[in-house]
Write a structure and sequence with these properties.
The structure is a single chain. By secondary structure, the protein is α+β, with helices and mostly antiparallel strands. The protein is 40% helix and 27% strand. Strand 6 and strand 7 form a beta hairpin. The radius of gyration is 47 Å and the shape is extended.
Length: 803
């Protein structure tokens, strides 16, 4: 291309116009660089193409890209010609031309600056980069050269490490584990308080939370185990595996000099170059567990002799190709037909010869795998008895290891499972019986995914076999059941135990049903849970009957209690005014009564008579309401005048009691005349005001009304004793009061609020309460707004209200 450009240039501007766009850009760049970049700069940056991975870009103070290496082209997706026609702002997400110029204008040359930003590729993708930039001056002009390294993987690694650390910290707080970190570059440990508590000391005693490795080893590591720990740390620093982790057990020295054991689990963090920069983990004191393990070993030795009485054959053998027997229990004769002395030390026959040829390799491989993992083994295989019969046996055992981790011998138990194998065929028959079972049966894998449901399941839930298969069994859970129940179920069965209880589940049609469930784990020969089975009985009808009986019983008990309380209350409420009437009537027949005393007695008789009349009227009225004999008499009512009349009447009673009576009418004139039943409104207000007077010792009582859309709200507010929250829904029931004991301070039948509620609901309104103990009470009731501007006819309603 340069030759062609030169040819066009020599031919003149007219011919130059025939260049392609790319050729023209390259030519312009060449001319600009000839002016701005001297030959020695070219020579300096010729080495850029030799770098393998990092992008290297040369630009001037204005951000114009002057040169770039091949890695820059590959990393950003642009051609070399395209980059030379661009500005740094075209690839840098955080670029600002003014900030860029000002930054480099005042910075000294030949000094390296490190910072992070984000670059944008040609395809629009954005990725994080670390920039290392330096300014230099050539022929009086300042240039900036920068190396951009993609740090995506490093950021991901750091985020992953932080996440893992956060998860580990949270878990350790719950499990009470001691946390530690080792900073490789700074060469010191960082411990937490729980870590120190394991060693029976504190950070304060040890001089803080940081400690050098050699100091830690000297103070806390058992001398015989220090080499093991050093080797583990070396492996952690040299490993290439970014997910490397280890778990080891070793001895420690407590601060009081005693020896203990800890379990250490640790992880590593690498930087983007693959270098291990940190290790961290948790310590757990396992001294008690180790003591138990030693005690168990002693116990096993004592129990060794008991094995002769077990069904099956207990053994101890070498880990060799013959399974050379060192000990065999007396059950050997019953199981194999051979005497003990025929198999001990392979005198007559190596035990391996008893194993069926088809299973010898399988047994060897499985035992060796378990030994390598230091786990128990459990194997099913066939043996050939002395009389040439085949038997199925279950072989369960484990290895004894020396201090160096070498296998010393194997101990185990062989049991005859021939009958068990024969019953597998019987299970096929039983599976057919399951299909016909009247209970719902579900079998899931160990994760709870359904593998089998019987026909009864589909019949009850509405889900077909195909719809249920592979579903998580919890898809039947309903939101009516506490999540704690489901957590208890899974916790129980995952521990290997069965769970039984009642659950509320959901059918396909969203209908809820009750079921009595038994959920059990199914384990394989190795004892691992492979499946769960749930057997459930639909008890919805039974539960409904049970709930109805409980509700009926509770209702009957409540009704009986209320009636008892009412009769006791009535006995007191009626007897009090009657005693007054009879007593003061007797006194009036006495001689030598002054006129003033006689008048006083008469007033008391009248007051008691009125009180008795109110009680009797309330009882009659509540009976009429319940039997549907109370009717509405609708007509025009001037609500403003009605409230003023009632206010005048009760302001007198309030004044007698030393209370402030307030009247708060917030009704515009156009809303004061409505169609309603005046008597029932008046009686409702009077009942509520009487209630306020009764329960207010000092302060105020307020009667008021205000307009809400389509209805009038009338309220009675007091500064009385208040009503606790638990009673606010009950006080409108018959014979209920906020205080229900025989010794209550305030009298009353408990019928006034029930009657008021019935009246309000007959008028298509509602009644409610706002109250706090010691802060007073406000009763509200609403009356539908029916304008009464036209002449209204009285109407009679026989609406029955349930109270």
């Amino acid at each position: 291309m340069p030759n062609r450009v030169s040819e066009y240039k020599r031919a003149g501007m007219k011919e130059l116009n025939k260049l392609t766009k790319e050729e023209l850009i390259r030519e312009i760049k060449r001319l600009r660089m000839k002016e701005k970049k001297p030959a020695d700069v070219y020579s300096h940056y010729k080495r850029l193409g030799e770098l393998a991975h990092d992008s290297i870009i040369l630009n001037n103070e204005n951000g114009e890209i002057i040169e770039a290496n091949g890695s820059a082209c590959r990393n950003l997706g642009y051609t070399y010609e395209e980059l030379l026609s661009m500005n740094i702002g075209d690839i840098d997400e955080g670029y600002n031309s003014n900030e860029f110029s000002n930054f480099w204008k005042n910075k000294p040359v030949e000094k390296q600056y490190l910072f992070e930003t984000k670059h944008r590729r040609k395809d629009g993708t954005v990725f994080p980069v670390e920039i290392s930039a330096t300014a230099f001056i050539e022929n009086g002009q300042k240039f900036i050269t920068g190396t951009a390294r993609d740090i995506s993987k490093r950021i991901e690694t750091e985020a992953s490490g932080l996440k893992a650390k956060a998860q580990l910290t949270s878990a350790m707080k719950i499990a009470q584990l001691g946390y530690w970190e080792y900073d490789v570059q700074e060469d010191y440990f960082i411990f937490d308080d729980q870590f120190y508590s394991i060693f029976r000391t504190t950070a304060e005693k040890e001089g803080g939370y940081k400690m050098r490795p050699e100091e830690y080893a000297k103070k806390f590591l058992h001398p015989d185990d220090q080499k093991i720990i050093a080797e583990e740390m070396k492996n952690a620093l040299e490993t290439k595996d970014p997910d490397y982790s280890r778990q080891i057990e070793h001895r420690i020295i407590y601060s009081d000099g005693l020896v203990g054991y800890i379990n250490v689990r640790f992880f590593i963090v690498k930087d983007d170059t693959g270098k291990t920069i940190k290790t961290y983990g948790a310590n757990q004191d396992i001294t008690d567990r180790k003591k138990i393990e030693l005690a168990v070993m002693e116990s096993e030795k004592r129990l060794f002799n008991i094995l002769n009485n077990l069904q099956g054959m207990a053994y101890k053998c070498k880990n060799d190709e013959y399974w050379t027997m060192e000990y065999i229990s007396a059950g050997c004769k019953t199981l194999t037909g051979y005497n003990v002395d025929e198999l001990i030390d392979s005198k007559s026959l190596p035990f391996n010869e008893i194993i069926h040829p088809d299973y010898r390799n399988k047994v060897w491989n499985k035992v060796q795998k378990a030994l390598h993992q230091k786990k128990q083994y459990s194997i099913e295989y066939k043996i050939i008895t002395k009389d040439k019969k085949e038997k199925w046996v279950m072989d369960r055992g484990s290895a004894n290891f020396d201090d160096k981790g070498n296998v010393m011998d194997l101990e185990g138990l062989l049991t005859d499972i021939t009958r068990l194998k024969e019953t597998e065929q019987e299970l096929i028959i039983l599976s057919k019986a399951v299909d016909q079972a009247p209970a719902l049966i579900v079998i899931t894998d160990k994760s709870g995914n359904i593998e089998y449901v019987n026909p009864k399941f589909s019949e009850v839930t509405g889900y077909t076999f195909d719809e249920a298969i592979k579903q998580d069994f919890r898809f039947l859970n309903s939101d009516k059941q506490s999540e704690l129940i489901y957590e208890e179920v899974w916790k129980t069965i995952l521990s290997g135990r069965a769970w039984s209880g009642e659950l509320i589940s959901k059918k396909k049609n969203e209908e809820l049903y009750w079921e009595n469930a038994l959920v059990s784990p199914i384990t394989n020969p190795e004892g691992k849970i492979t499946h769960f089975i749930a057997i459930m009985e639909d008890i919805t009808s039974k539960k409904q009957t049970e709930f109805e009986l409980i509700r009926a019983k509770e209702k009957a008990e409540e009704s009986d209690r209320l009636k008892s309380a009412f009769l006791a209350n009535m006995s007191h409420e009626i007897r009090t005014p009657m005693n007054g009437i009879i007593g003061f009537s007797s006194l009036l027949t006495g001689k030598n009564l002054s006129k003033e005393v006689a008048e006083y007695y008469k007033s008391l008789i009248i007051k008691s008579s009125n009180q008795l009349l109110i009680i009797v009227n309330n009882i009659i009225e509540i009976s009429k309401i319940e039997s549907g004999q109370v009717h509405l008499n609708l007509g025009k009512v001037d609500l403003k005048n009605l409230l003023k009349e009632v206010s005048s009447e009760f302001s007198y009673f309030a004044k007698e009691k030393g209370l402030d009576f307030r009247f708060g009418l917030q009704l515009p004139d156009e809303y004061t005349t409505i169609v309603t039943d005046e008597l029932k409104i008046r009686l409702t207000i009077s009942n509520l005001l009487n209630n306020a007077l009764k329960f207010t010792k000092n302060g105020f009582i307020e009667l008021g009304a205000k307009y809400n859309p389509k209805e009038i709200h009338i309220y009675i507010k007091d500064s009385g004793i208040g009503i606790r929250k638990s009673m606010q829904d009950k006080i409108f029931q018959r014979f209920r009061q906020a205080e229900e004991t025989h010794t209550r301070e305030y009298g009353g039948t408990g019928l006034g609020l029930s009657i008021s509620k019935a009246y309000v609901e007959m008028l298509d309104g509602k009644i409610w309460i706002e109250s706090n103990i010691g802060e007073g009470t406000t009763f509200y009731f609403s009356v539908p707004f029916k304008p009464g501007s036209k002449k209204e006819k009285k109407q009679v309603s026989q609406k029955k209200i349930k109270i």
